[in-house]
Amino acid sequence: MATAAFVPDLATGMAGGFFKAVEPRNIEELSADELSTLVDASAFIRGLFADSRRNIEAGLCEGVEATAFASKYERGVGALNLVFDTVERIVKRLEAMRPSPRVDPVLSNFKALYDELTGLRHFLLEALAKAKTPPAPINWTRIREVEAAYSRGETRPM
C-alpha cells in the first residue's frame, strides 16, 4: 500500500508546483516550445492522477482497514481540492479568452486533466464516506438461515 500513498502525494505535489507557475501566465504569449512543454507536462500529471486512482482502487480491492484508509486519504483530499480549483480556473480562463488554434491543445489537455481530477475526487470522496460509515450490525438470524439452507443442500459455496 506504500505505492498507493506515494503516487497521489507525488501527483498533487508536482501539480501544485506546476500550476502555481502556469496560472498567472498569459498562455497566448508562450512560445511554441513552451506550449508543447505545457501540453506534455499536463498530460504527464494527468497520467499520475490516473495512476493514483488505479493504485487506490487496487489497495481497496486487496482490503484495507477503513479508519486507516480514511486517515491516510483525508489529508490528500485537501491537496487534491487545491489542484482541482487551480485547474478549473485555468480551464475557465482559457475558455473565456477564446484561444487561438495553437493554444487549443493546451485547452484540450487541461480539460482532460480536469475530467480526470473530477473523477478521482468523486471516487475518493465516495470511498472516504463509505470508510467512515459504521458497519451494519451482524444479522445472526440471516446467518442461521443461510447455514440451514446450506446444510439442506439448497445452496453451495462459491
Give your account of this protein's structure.
The protein contains 5 helices and no strands. The chain has helices spanning 2-22, 32-62, 66-96, 104-132, 140-151. Helix 1 (2-22) runs antiparallel to helix 2 (32-62), helix 1 (2-22) packs parallel to helix 3 (66-96) and helix 2 runs parallel beside helix 4.
Which spans have pLDDT < 50 for at least 5 consecutive residues? none
* Shape summary: elongated
First and last CA, distance? 28 Å
The tally of strands reads: 0
What is the count of DSSP helices, taking H or I runs of 4+ residues?
5
Radius of gyration: 22 Å
Give the % helix. Answer: over 70%
Note the main sheet.
Answer: none
Mean pLDDT: 85
What proportion of the residues form beta strands (DSSP E)? Answer: under 5%
Order of helices and strands: HHHHH
Structural class assignment: mainly alpha
Features:
mainly alpha; 0% strand; single chain
How are the SSEs ordered, and which strands pair?
Layout: H1 2-22, H2 32-62, H3 66-96, H4 104-132, H5 140-151
How would you summarize this macromolecular structure in one to three sentences?
The protein is built from five helices and no strands. It has helices at 2-22, 32-62, 66-96, 104-132, 140-151.
